[in-house]
Amino acid sequence: MAENVFEAVKQSVSAREAAEFYGIKVSRTGMACCPFHDDKNPSMKVDQRFHCFGCGADGDVIDFTARLFDLAPKEAAEKLAQDFGLIYDSQAPPRRKYVRQKTEAQQFWEDRQRCYRILSDYYYLLKKWEIDHSPRTPEEEPHPRFVEAIQKKTYVEYLLDLFLYESEEEQKAWIAEHTAEITHLERRLKIMAENKPTNRERLREITDGIEQGIKELFESEKYMRYLSVMSRFHRYSVNNTMLIYMQKPDATLVAGYNKWKDQFERHVKKGEHGITIIAPTPYKKKIEEQKLDPDTKAPILDQDGKIVTEEKEIEIPMFRPVKVFDVSQTDGKPLPEIASSLSGNVPNYEAFMEALRRSAPVPITFEAMAADTDGYFSAEHQKIAIRQGMSEVQTVSATVHEIAHSKLHNQNKIQIANDEQYQEIELFDKPGLFSNGRIARDTLPEGVYCYDLRGSDYDPGDPIYVEDRVGVNHAGSVILAEPLDLSKEGYLRLTEEEGLNFVGGFSTLAQFLQEQKKDRHTEEVEAESISYAVCKYFKIETGENSFGYIASWSQGKELKELRASLETINKTSGTLISDIERHYKEICKERGIDPNAKVEPETAPIEQPADAAKVSDRQPTGNLTYYAAECMEFPNLGEYHDNLSLEEAIRIYQEIPAERMNGIKGIGFELKDGSDYEGPFPILTGQTIDLDTIQAIDYYRDNPLVQKAVKDLAEAMPEMEVLGADANQQEALFLIDGATYLHIQPCDSGWDYTLYDAASMKELDGGQLDMPELSRKNAVLQICDDNDLDGTSLRHAPLSMIETLQEAAYQQMQAEASQVAVSSQLPEAQEQALDEYPTPDEQVSTPDMQEYGYSYDGMLPVTRERALELDAAGLTVYVLHEDNTESMVFDPQEIMEHGGLFGVDREEWEKSPQFHEKVMERQAHQQEREQAFLSQNRDCFAIYQVKHTDELRDIRYEGLDWLRSIGQTVKRENYDLVYTAPLEPCKSPQVAVEQLYNQFNNDHPADYHHPSMSVSDIVAIKQDGKVSCHYCDSVGFTQIPGFLPENPLKNAEMAVEDDYGMIDGIINNGAKEPTVAELEQQARSGQPISLMDLAEAVHREERDRKKSVVDQLKSQPKAEHKKTAQKKSAEREI
Fold it and tell me: CA angle, 785 as apex, 781 and 787 as ends, to 5°?
């Protein structure tokens, strides 16, 4: 077949060849500087295709050339053909690429929505300009944006009305006539929106004040407040602790908006301003590097003597500013107690002192001392001594102070623990030590900082960056006595002028630290600060006498010295708090003490606040009625009715005919409370409830009568548009036409919805509407339209019904599942499983975890052996406790010490290479999975895709017309079975395939790791025992017979007879159940055996041999909680 220019170029020229031909330097690893943005370092991967990790440019060789020379695709293809001397048929038509075509109605709906969205954005921009740029005096020259607002606002209002009320024909005509204007306006709005500060600029604004804040911090009063904040956020960095301290010193517990809502069931109060902190947002990047021999570490060569390369994915650290809110800025479900309530004379004093002993690295003794000495740490004798006879608070404070000394300033212990020789270096003028290998960080003492060096892609041994941790191209590690101030990207570049210098000589870590030893004053400041922070965390009030000394110590210190001490205080305080808390809980459990028991406070008379009268004055007084008007702008035109109830106002509004309106009709309220805001105010104008305007008036926003009036009207007229995020972003339940319930609630990608039958309460359908720009009203109408429901018959239903509906639907699902299980008459081995979710550990299941006492569905259970493997592979492992809490594992030893279950976060597991490997293992079991699909007793589906081989590329992504034109037919041997799963209830296979097409293009399951559903894919539907196969064609689906057997029951019966002899013999005499050993013996003797027999025997023996995981766990001693980590997500299923 003659090739056209596109086919000739794509088959003959790669993107790499074109790049090199046009003068772009490409490294041997395929990396090049991107010509499409200002690229200083190679960030574009060039091979058969090209992809830039910096700007996102991507495509094939024609796309590359077209973009490079600003050509049309055909011009670019012709240029490539001419430059590379290719011969092609200029008359050959391009092959058709079939895509799913939109109907005329769908295209109009999208165009209408786009125009309305753009005009709405422009209208609110004009309103803002009219206010912001209005002249302050009559003589002032009007601003151009004010002039534009005055000229255009009325016209845009008319256009918005056109899209709300006029006929489809008028709307289509306007869209066709003004397409270019709308496109220009959209581009203009986008440019204006992009004039906001970038993340980098916002980060610079945030961090500008941190250094000055640190310099001013060490004043006595400020430093006390900082340590108090730090004790509550001991797991935060110095920068974020400083940011919290500078913005809200009284903060106690912070979290993001969604985390408060989803995980803690609390909501942020209206009008609260967030606390800005800096959060990591790393991105992944694929690089190519030399493949090294695991033993010799030398590069591996291929047959031609060239170095073999391999592609690896690395994570590049990035940061961005985010908003968090303190618990005092939220309302909702009460939080559990986090720390023990210890105050005054330290309740449970003996238990707390024992926790300090277990947390200390050296023994603690009590001695008689002079009155001016509370205690000391002896490095020579490796002990802590505390003065006898002090109060409980003094004793605790002194003990923590000396523990800090023993952790930070224990030179003798360092010398015993580490005598390895390191090379002496200077890194950015800081003295340090260098090692070619990786340094075990958990063996380093407090106050020591370790960083990794990254080598270049061309020479991995030549360091070019300093980073916190390096996985790929590791070029050595360094130890410093002071922290580095890494860039916001998480690294520092090494240059010839400034970077790594080897000064000659070798030292042990002890010798190095002895030379870098801090002066006695600094050591005392660090220990006293740690003592104050730790005691503050446990609510033990200590004295403040030492803070004047700290303020004088900070005078004259350089910023890097102050920051180094803060880093040390942060890190040590956090570790010590975690250790004490863990040991204290263990001791309380051993001794039968309730650590959360509150000490009864002494009763004191309750003082009446001075402004109590003012508070009572703010209670709602007066009353509120509704009015309805034919013209809301000028109520004296046409009908006007006041002193109405809500029902009367709605009735009159609906009775006003459209043909005789003098203006836009509506409903408002009239407040009668004697205030300055007394009188009428509009709520509904046309078909829009303007909540934004009402909420912008403080008096109305805080008035319960007004808020109730607006809420009641919105609920009574759900078909109306509500302007205002608070109103639109609400969960709601609607009854449609008296027959169907619609439950809708906002989600990250738009709107989540579920449909229930009103009579049976059975769940009918559900999903997500990925259109976050829609208001709730328009989302409801869109859902009704998508599901052929009457959107004109909406009415609100009480939210309390949702729980009843969900419970009823769940019970029906359980009953159906039980009925399916009972109705199955074949032996257990006959119905194999469909593709199951690949769990991290097959030895333990979610029901096992729930029986154990842990029920959070965002966690997947694993056993100890699997936990060790996943921890070594880099996944975050959690210790699961029987009181439905978890704690993050920081050390493999914690896994060995715990006698119960472990878990990994579901989201992290689904992104891991181990999950992907398990998903792709299915491809090796095509026949077994297909047989499992055909033998199912329930409705299910299977997806087939054309095999990825060069021989089949002519039929991949092509329609049936194309296949017939080249003499091809649809054959099973050309396809891979990629996915099977149960089928949701639906009317027919035709409806099912359309639903599956949407699902596997928009929101496919987590364990589906294949291309989105497209032309040439085949969907097999098994419904009511019959199988039908449907080819995804250029438009819709076409049913194809003969791809799979259409009556699988007969095939299943024949397979049963083949494997078991005679089915009658099984029913009457019981199936023969040979052991694995017997079957292996038959195979060795040359006798044929059934693979199903062998699989069943293995399964049966494994089941009999396996003891219940829960029984095993119950027989082991229980372990206590460790470092408690927050759950990553609290979205739970029904």
Answer: 120
- The encoded tokens of residue 1118 equal 């229980």
Contact 417, 398 (CB under 8 A): no
Secondary element (H or E) of residue 846: helix 846-852
The Cα 354–Cα 331 span in angstroms is: 38
Radius of gyration of the chain (CA): 36
Q: What is the mean pLDDT of residues 1044-1063?
A: 50
What confidence score (pLDDT) does residue 429 get?
Answer: 79
- Report in angstroms the alpha-carbon separations of 516 from 447, 482, 977: 11, 10, 65
Banded pLDDT at 229 (limits 50, 70, 90) = low
The pLDDT tens digits for 326-335 are 888 888 887 6
Range 219-241 average pLDDT? 55
Assess contact for 588 and 358: CB atoms under 8 A. Answer: no
Contact 744, 779 (CB under 8 A): yes
CA distance 21 to 66: 14
Average pLDDT over the chain, rounded to an integer: 75
- Mean per-residue pLDDT, 426-446: 83
Per-residue pLDDT at 831 exceeds 50: no
Tokens of 247: 């913005």
Which of these ranges, 643-652, 1022-1031, 1082-1091, has the smallest mean pLDDT?
A: 1082-1091
Cα angle 283-286-288, degrees, rounded to a multiple of 5: 150
> Would the CA dihedral through 1116, 1121, 1123, 1125 be positive or negative?
positive
Q: How confident is the model at residue 239 (pLDDT cuts 50, 70, 90)?
A: low
CA distance 413 to 445: 9
What 3-state class would DSSP assign to 746? strand
Collapsed DSSP state (helix, strand, coil) of residue 1076:
helix
Is residue 368 a contact partner of residue 387, using CB atoms and an 8 Å limit? Answer: yes
| Maximum pairwise Cα distance, the chain | 109
- Confidence (pTM): 0.30
Write out the two tokens for 1104.
């009999």
Q: Count other Cβ atoms within 10 Å, centred on residue 523.
A: 17
DSSP letter for 730, please: -
Cα separation, 831 vs 835, in Å, equals 13
For residues 15-27, average pLDDT = 88
As to burial, measured by CB atoms within 10 angstroms (0-12 exposed, 13-18 middle, 19+ buried), residue 659 is: exposed
301: DSSP letter = B
Burial classification of residue 527, based on how many CB atoms lie within 10 Å of its CB (0-12 exposed, 13-18 middle, 19 or more buried): buried
Task: List, in order, residues 6 or more apart from 290 with CB less than 8 Å away.
Answer: 299, 300, 307, 308, 309, 310, 460
* pLDDT at residue 548 greater than cutoff 50: no
**Cα 692 to Cα 120: distance, rounded to the nearest angstrom:** 14
Torsion angles phi and psi, residue 520, rounded to 5: -60, -35
